[in-house]
Design a protein that fits this description.
Two copies of one chain form a homodimer. The first copy, chain A, is of the alpha/beta class. In chain A, 40% of the residues lie in helices and 15% in strands. In chain A, helix 9 (219-228) links the parallel strand 10 and strand 11.
């Protein structure tokens, strides 16, 4: 099997840019199915996970620039066939919206090739999330799929993310000294997440396929990542249940074209209603969230914002 | 579902210590099935992956202290049912040998709970490998399963591992200064992997469930990890195909009881023969590898080694 771009498809980044423009939205709808929170009429149904996610996706598609299925939710339920069905559904009915498989994989060599095959051949995702801990050669097997997106964890939305990501780092020299990293804002150190952002924006990104995960819960760090990586698409979790502020996140993360972010919301959209109207209720909140993001972007860019004339 | 220890089972660490003593072996047999390299008589068979892995496990069990199925190999092939079957087979026929599910997961909160459920409830693994990049709170959902093992990536066996893991790190202070980490060998910095080893051996390890992944390809770093974490079990990949030296790895990583390591070999054992004798051929190499590890340990500890009287 030779890694290639998705047959007949443009690359992830082109698809995402087009989705930003066409929808005027930077909302990413996270598909994190939890059967314990499903509407009563779906509980116990054989394909409940697929039906639930497809229902939410169909209803929220007009307000979304991306979908992000969380593979852990399918894996814990042994529902790989339903994930396959969902990915087929998204490709068939929403081909213009890129799908980021949230898997946060990280391994080396032949094992990473297996994970890349899982994401890009088995599930045919447009992009996948990965961990940078094992370094550049652990990311190459994903990049070998030309045009597919590889979204690298940078500064995650959880407080414990700081345990490693906020550590001041230097560069080891051959003489046993410590030199300042390229991303250091002054002579000395930078935080590990800044160094990851720098690697992702430069050395690791030969094919222009890379994006970064940066939590909305840390707008100061989000702003630093945008400075270091002015052109990378950012996947931004942490609004809604985790308490991140839309206004602050948009102010920190917009790119110079006035887009640049996939601001993710999962539970706050998925579980608005546990009645038969769950999809419409999800659409209502998705529309409100997309509009709140758009308003925040307009406040940043004024009339210059490409989505400025909408609504 | 309430996280608990495996029903009727001792914890991972007790099981591993017992396996070290009973087998006198520190060999971990990595089960990384690649159907393209299977014996001819298995190719095309419905359950070829399960048959192949079970065959290798049965033949190598006398020489193994642990089995390590690589979940990526099953995921790329859509073979979750065969992984389930393999785990059932290992529990039924080799209940004394702990099984480490190599998944290298890393995520937060409810998503990490899903991954923990995948590893410990769906597949009923004794231990799982995880990434430290997202910090301590990303590891807690696995630790909530009392007695299960959580093996954290520390210094991986690939050259690119140095991209992040070898970076000199300090600790940020409230006053914007950089303080030396607890694991710093002198006043100043330590490498990121040393800091991870320190966190894993102290703050993160309240329940005594944690182990570390350290590559045999970097014996100097392996020795440092053993100094920082004298009692943690180490999963040591990188001998065989990756070129790590058994003698150097054992010299660097033994604990004070003369064990302390699961030295992994996968491809060098699995694909010795592509004939009908593949399992016996695998057993032969497993026995030789376990014996080479034992000899190296004896050279380190002399008559004091608990496996010294064997063979």
């Amino acid at each position: 099997m030779t890694p290639t771009a998705a047959p007949g498809c443009e690359g992830f980044l082109a698809k995402l840019r087009n989705a930003w423009k066409q929808s005027g939205s930077m909302l990413c709808v996270g598909l994190d199915p939890d059967p314990r929170r499903f509407p009563l009429h779906l509980r116990g149904r054989t394909n409940a996970i697929l039906e639930f996610c497809a229902g939410v996706a169909d209803a929220t598609a007009p307000f979304a620039c991306a979908f992000k299925p969380q593979i852990a939710c399918f894996a814990s339920a042994g529902a790989e066939d339903q994930l396959t069905g969902l990915m087929e559904h998204l490709r068939a009915f929403h081909p213009q919206i890129p799908v980021v498989l949230d898997a946060k994989r990280g391994d080396i060599g032949s094992t990473a090739e297996h994970y890349a095959r899982e994401a890009f051949e088995r599930y045919k995702a447009d992009a996948v999330t990965v961990s940078p801990y094992m370094g550049g050669d652990s990311i190459n097997p994903y990049l070998a799929y030309a045009g597919r997106g590889v979204i690298i964890l940078c500064r995650t939305s959880n407080p414990g993310g700081a345990d490693l990501q906020a550590l001041p780092v230097g560069l080891a020299t051959a003489r046993g000294q410590v030199a300042p990293p390229e991303a250091a804002p002054f002579a000395g150190h930078c935080a590990l997440y800044e160094h990851v952002a720098h690697l992702a924006a430069t050395r690791w990104n030969a094919g222009g396929q890379i994006g970064l995960v940066v939590g909305a819960t840390y707008p100061g760090e989000l702003r630093r990542v945008r400075e270091i990586a002015p052109d990378l698409p950012l996947l931004v979790p942490g609004i809604g249940a985790q308490g991140g502020d839309i206004e602050a996140a948009v102010g920190a993360g917009l790119d110079r074209r006035g887009f640049g972010m996939m601001i993710n919301s999962s539970r706050a959209i998925l579980y608005v209603s546990s009645g038969g109207d769950y999809a419409c209720a999800a659409a209502r909140v998705a529309e409100q969230t997309a509009e709140a993001i758009r308003r925040a972007a307009r406040r940043q860019t004024g009339d210059a914002h490409p989505a400025g004339g909408r609504r």
